[in-house]
Amino acid sequence: MPLVPLQCRDGTASAFERVSETCCLGDGLDPRIEGTVLDPWLLAYESLKRTYGDIEMPGIKVAPSSEAVTTEVLALAAGANTDATGETQMAPVRQPIDMFVFSSFARRDTPGARFYYVIMNIDRHP
Q1: Is the sign of the CA dihedral 75, 52, 61, 9 positive or negative?
Q2: In this structure, what are the phi and psi dihedrals at residue 61, rounded to the nearest 5 degrees?
Q3: Which residues contact 2 (CB under 8 A, 6 or more apart)?
Q4: Helix 38-52 vs helix 71-85: angle between axes, to the nearest 10 degrees?
């Protein structure tokens, strides 16, 4: 099952047709503000979930006794985790047979600034 084509930050559309491809969905300066880097994270999450089903995020822990967690709460948790650890990844629980698909919400520190970005990765199996 192919991934739904996504709009990369640079304006190109990615159909993920090459053997290995990375698409930067967006970036920003604050991982907690809606309308910045959270929107690309939500796009990645919703695209993966709609295409492949349940999503796992090893860096995010939800208590088994808690109520259902909304996508927006997961986005905020992913942003906070990325701020603290440098990266939060998510991937479909059931991977496609012919590829490995995942998304990263990452942080990059440069002199005087901290940037956050969301990328989608597709690695096709030969």
Answers
A1: negative
A2: -115, 130
A3: 15, 16, 51
A4: 120
Per DSSP, the three-state class of 85 is helix
Cα–Cα distance, 17 to 19 (Å, whole number): 7
pLDDT number for residue 55: 93
pLDDT at 18: 52
Residue with tokens 């942003």: 79
Instruction: Kindly list the averaged pLDDT for each block of 10 residues, start to end, along the chain of length 126.
Output: 50 55 79 75 90 90 78 88 92 89 91 88 79
**Alpha-carbon distance values, 102 to 44, 54, 65, 108, 118 (Å):** 9, 12, 27, 19, 11
Terminal-residue alpha carbon distance, the chain? 16
